[in-house]
Structure prediction request, 290 residues.
Amino acid sequence: MVYSNPPPASIAVLTHPTLEDAAIEGSLVVDRLRQGGLWVEQGQIQDEALVQRVAQGEFDTVIAVGGDGTMLRAGHLCAKRNIPLMGINMGHFGFLYEIKRNEWQEYIPRLLNGDYRLENRMMLRAELFRQDTLLGSWDVLNEVIACRGQIVRPVQLTAYVDGYYLTLFVADGLIASTATGSTGYSLAAGGPILPPELRNILIIPVASHISWDRAIVLSEGSSVTITVNTSHEAVLSVDGQAPVPMVDGDQVHVTANSHSLNMIRFQGPDYFYRNLTPHLQQNPLTGAVR
Prediction:
């Protein structure tokens, strides 16, 4: 199938900050794109100057070269500006990626011709409140989790859906996830795998102790509130970022985000299911698959 999209004119190539192979591969990508007459800039995903230029809308396309963490950071950046994002996997799992490091050469001509589809990924909005004070808000591509800290004791997490009491979880944590995040922490906690374009909110308890231990799938229009009850350390983490301390009574409000992420894809939607088998049969972190 041939797709029809506007071909890119300016591209930012963002690479993993410490993986040398990613920088080398990124340079090869840049050289190939410039051969096609495009304006291209390369830098690490932590390059504040280049990231700021992307945030200001200076580029119409972004290519992330690295692992899932690189893709997540680039996704946060691109969603706010509705910039299409393409990824080249240099890491291990690569659930967020379609293209492997030895495959991008065959897809660049299609990118230059606009022969790709856009896969729309729902995001969440998470807000942390202490009484009536907003302590912070975050865009979420994978998941937000309220959980215990370093002390190995469960916390009590009261969940409300659309303002109505759902249940009290006694657990290590409670995850609110997108369909994209269903192959991340949610999967490790026993949650279901959802096709990436579904617009649902998943609630998944982590190591639930004599309380509800099943995942719940909510509609896009639902809102989730998680109240933390604990006498010891608890934290909030968004997409694997640095944890934010929480205290007894803090609340996390989760809703669908007004932003979505458009990911550049060259294969049909069935690629997701074809990739599941190799991902689930062998764990690349064991060294069996690279």
